[in-house]
Amino acid sequence: LLCAVRTGNGEDTGRLLAQGADPCVRDENGRTPSSWAAEQGNESIVKLLLDWHQFQLSSKDIIRRVQQQSAKEGVSVIECFSKQFVSLFDTKDKGGRTPLSWAVAGGHEEIVKLLLQRYEIDIESKDKKHFTPLWRAVKEENEAIARTLLEAGAEVNSIKLEDEKNPSASGTYRGHEDIIRLLLNTDNVDLNATNKQNETPLHIAAENGKELAVILLLEKGSKIDVNLPDSSLNQTALFRAAKEGHEAVVKLLLEMGKTHIDVKGQVYTRVERKKILGAPQTPLEIAKSRGHEGVVKLIQEYSQEYSQSQRLQASS
To answer: Where does the record place its ANK repeats (predicted)?
Structure first.
């Protein structure tokens, strides 16, 4: 059956299912026929598996087996039916990935819709790298699938722990305008959502010089905390942009008028293969130490204008 599905042979797939082949059979990586069909975008085989499973769940044989399982395990019949469903369409391979995850990664929008429409599968299922289907859609810059998942209730603030980015942060890191707008315009999006290091999407966009992402984030105004430092090194978005020499991003942050330029952050340096934590520095100091003259000039000009403004306010 696995061979038939992997080669896209719908006729053999149907014949083998009719002969009693196990649709939950796994290969050496723990992948099932539904997993392979979803990744390949083979809609006819996915429908075949879905229809076969629906037929099985409505047959007298499955009812008898579920009743027996319910009595044996001491759980409800509904729970046993649920287990029968999960065994085929929410089953995970050795990497923790479901058919939905594979369909998203393959860019197969119709398969994604089919899976979401036919059954209540776990849309927040995380693989061993803690990727959710939505995170994968963002990673692949697939706006259509990301929109489909969001409309189906995917959580935009969910955290992907391996590299500590949630979908919003990942979108800003990659700089895809349509994806960023889609995520930021989601009703319940938390623009200050943080990971274990207390990094926000703005931190990540600023450090990577993603000017467009920074603009779109700053457009949210009061919803964005531009001065929020991370928890590991006390770095603000301005500090990170200054550290990397991203002049355009530094200018955007300063022009907002609410950015604190004196918050000190720290950086690690390597000394004889060891990471040494340096002394706290302001964004201006870190820019000077790294030779980012354009950034230095921007911060100095901003500082002078700010000081002059403060003096005028004090005298009025």
So the answer is: 95-118, 129-161, 197-229
